[in-house]
Amino acid sequence: MADMTDISLRTITLAPALLLMACSQSDPAPALQAEEEVQNTFFSALAEHCGKAYSGQLVSDDEADADFIDAAMVMHVSECSDEGIAVPFHVELNGEWDRSRTWLITRTDNGLRLKHDHRHEDGESDQLTMYGGDTTDEGTTKEQSFPVDQFSIDMFNAQGYEVSVTNVWSVEVDPAGSESPKFTYQLKRTIEGGAPEPRLFRVEFDLSEEVEAPPPAWGHE
Questions:
Q1: Is the distance from CB of 114 to CB of 133 less than 8 angstroms?
Q2: pTM of the predicted model, to two decimals?
Q3: Which of 124, 130, 125, 170 is nearest to 147 (CA)?
C-alpha cells in the first residue's frame, strides 16, 4: 500500500504539469468571438447604406470586360435585415439597362456568404444562378473574401464553366461618413490558385454621393 506522503507529493508535482497542459489547449471561443465582431462590423457598414444607390465604374482592364468600359453602373443597397442584404447591380449595355444581377450577402453559422442571384427580364432565374461562396477567415472590417463553394463548382462543371471553379470574390465597403468612401466588388482568379490563366473583374462605386434609386432588379419587384 502506497504511503500517503508519497501520494501527496506526486499530486503536488503533477499539478503544475496538468495546469500547463490545460493552458496549452487554447480556447477557440475568443478567436471565434473576434472573427464574429469583425464580420459584424463589415455587415453593419454595408447596412448603413440601406436604401441608397450609388454610381460606379469598371476599374480593372481585363479584355473579357470590354463591354463594361465606360458603361454606366449603379449599385443599390435595396433590402436589409439582420440576416441578409441584397445589392442589385445595374449596368447599361448597348443603350439598355441590364438589371439581371443581385449580390446577396447573408450571415451563416460560420461567417458570411455571397451569392449571385441572376434573373431574366421576366423574373425567371437564369440557369447559372445562386453561385458564390463563404468566408473562410475573419477578413477585415472593410473587406471580406468568398472563395467558390462546392455547390458552385458542381454547377460550373455541369454547365461548361470549368474556368470558374477557382473563383474568389471579394467585397469592400466603407461605412457611411468615411472620407472618400467606396464600395468595391471583385472577381479574381489566379494561376497560383489553380486557374489556367489569371482573371480580374473589379468595379468601384463612389459612396460619397447618392444617385436616384433605379427600378427594382429583375425578379425583385
A1: yes
A2: 0.85
A3: 170
